[in-house]
Design brief:
By secondary structure, the chain is mostly beta strands. It has strands at residues 2-7, 10-13, 18-26, 30-39, 46-51, 57-59, 67-72, 77-82, 91-100, 108-111, 115-120.
Length: 121
């Protein structure tokens, strides 16, 4: 139905930057909110940043001022610009999208496969 593919993860030194991208494809009528979540080893998955269809954003307190989420509505993509990275930002980053696949108001939740971000000290 709908596929989300993340890219842009990798190994970076503390203080560095990375830009994650997520492309949504498939049967898409419209996309409501999109978000980035992460899961560190041994920890629960947590919300990093979200962005609504109207462009409103929200961030985890731990990344405010360092990370920026944005969307390309025409391309069904969402991005996460990560600056001033810290070792505690290490984890698998997942893209999430709330997608309408037809004209009804019903939406479904889709996830990407995740991309690993490793920040060395």
């Amino acid at each position: 139905q709908v596929q989300l593919v993340e890219s842009g993860g990798g190994l970076v030194q503390a203080g560095g930057s990375l830009r994650l991208s997520c492309a949504a494809s498939g049967i898409i009528f419209s996309i409501n909110a999109m978000a980035w979540l992460r899961q560190a080893p041994g920890k629960q998955r947590e919300l990093v940043a979200g962005i609504t269809s109207g462009g409103s954003t929200n961030y985890a307190d731990s990344v405010k001022g360092r990370f920026t989420i944005s969307r390309d509505y025409a391309k069904n993509m969402v991005y996460l610009q990560m600056n001033s990275l810290k070792p505690e930002d290490t984890g698998v980053y997942y893209c999430n999208a709330d997608v309408r696949t037809d004209w009804s108001q019903r939406s479904l939740d889709f996830w990407g496969q995740g991309t690993l971000v490793t920040v060395s000290s």
